Amino acid sequence: PTGSMHLCHYHGALKNWIKLQSELPCLFFVADWHALTTHYDDPSIIETSIWDMVIDWLAAGIDPSQATLFIQSRVPEHAELHLLLSMATPLGWLERVPTYKDQQEKLSEKDLTTYGFLGYPLLQAADILIYKAAFVPVGEDQRQHIELTRDLATRFNSRFGETFVIPEGVILKETAKIYDLQNPTAKMSKSGDPKGLVNIMDDSSVIVKKFKSAVTDLDGVIRFDREAKPGISNLLGIYSAITGESIDSLVARFDGAGYGALKTELADVVVSHIEPIRNRAEELLSDPAELDRLLAKGAAKANELAEKTLATVYERIGFIAAS
Predict the structure, then answer these.
(1) What is the dihedral of CA 186, 192, 196, 197, to 10 degrees?
(2) Is 212 annotated in the active site?
(3) Which residue ranges of the chain lie beneath pLDDT 70?
(4) How far, rounded to the nearest angstrom, does the alpha carbon of residue 300 sit from its chain's CA centroid?
(5) How confident is the model at residue 70, as a pLDDT?
(6) Which end of the chain is more exposed for a tag (fewer CB within 10 A), N or C?
């Protein structure tokens, strides 16, 4: 949980999830235990981030009547399976995960020499295997984690008998690559300039201001060229992602109109796009009891599935599971 959703989150992942929930039985959970791997020294921010994320998911279109939505720590079987898998996981497998050293370098101000950080991919594997998930929607940067999960499942199955489904990573195509409005060569991110980040919960006037101050260039020509004109290309890409209008059509329509016209119209488009989501989020915020009910229902369903898998794991290992 990283808090409130921004435009890149929505078009990079959430739109795909919303589509998937009507096609396959889906489980979506907020990984609060995972947040402790980098925020163990100050976990106070995690609770707020959880609620922000859940509210945004629901407001954007995740439907609890179609998908199972829950918070990871409310289904303790995740941790139990993580412990059992850790007993037979070679240390070298975890140390070779590319993101282990990458993240240590990126977050050098934090002490990440903990088992929790090293074992992050193992807990992630437990998250997947506990539900015998056949498919896992991921970005390209998570491919190695899925490979580790497959290796762990294969190792367990070969040693103790067929228990886990070997999951496939489904690399989801981003509906749009959305870049920072102030640094249009970098992906829009919470670690970037706040002025370049468009949050779903931003006030409409703030959104307009951010687009009007978006970095462009000086030649005044509207055309799509990621290398030569990253700022204008980003604005055209955002406009196309939201409206479905082709970039070629947008270039032709704004030809000669100037950057100000494109920024003004795009700001209005984004406001119209975000307002219904924000309004729905505000409704959800006004009824915390309903949020608790939805999450409790999701956790109960997830728990039922997880308990069955864990019972099988204990049986395969040769332990007597609690009745």
Answers:
(1) 110
(2) no
(3) 101, 104, 173-175, 321-323
(4) 23
(5) 97
(6) C
Amino acid symbol at 183: N
CA pair distance 313, 23, nearest whole angstrom: 29
**Residue 110: predicted pLDDT:** 77
Is residue 95 a contact partner of residue 136, using CB atoms and an 8 Å limit? no
The closest of 127, 53, 72 to 291, measured between CA atoms, is: 53
d(CA 194, CA 202): 11
Left, alpha or beta for 265 (phi > 0: left; psi -120 to 50: alpha)? alpha
Per the residue annotation, which of 19, 101, 106, 209 is the catalytic one?
106
Active-site choice (187, 212, 297, 301): 187
* Catalytic residue (one of 19, 101, 190, 209): 190
Is 301 noted as a catalytic residue in this protein? no
Catalytic, 190? Answer: yes
Instruction: Output the pLDDT for position 323.
Output: 60
Tokens of 216: 């462009």
pTM of the predicted model, to two decimals?
A: 0.88
Residue with tokens 């629901």: 58
Number of H helices, E strands in the chain: 15, 4
State the SS3 of the chain.
CCCCCEHHHHHHHHHHHHHHCCCCCCEEEECHHHHHHHHCCCCHHHHHHHHHHHHHHHHHCCCCCCCEEEEHHHCCHHHHHHHHHHCCCCHHHHHCCHHHHHHHHHCCCCCCCCHHHHCHHHHHHHHHHCCCCCEEEECHHHHHHHHHHHHHHHHHHHHHCCCCCCCEEEECCCCCCCECCCCCCCECCCCCCHHHCCECCCCHHHHHHHHHCCCCCCCCCCCCECCCEHHHHHHHHHHHHHHCCCHHHHHHHCCCCCHHHHHHHHHHHHHHHHHHHHHHHHHHHCCHHHHHHHHHHHHHHHHHHHHHHHHHHHHHHCCCCCC
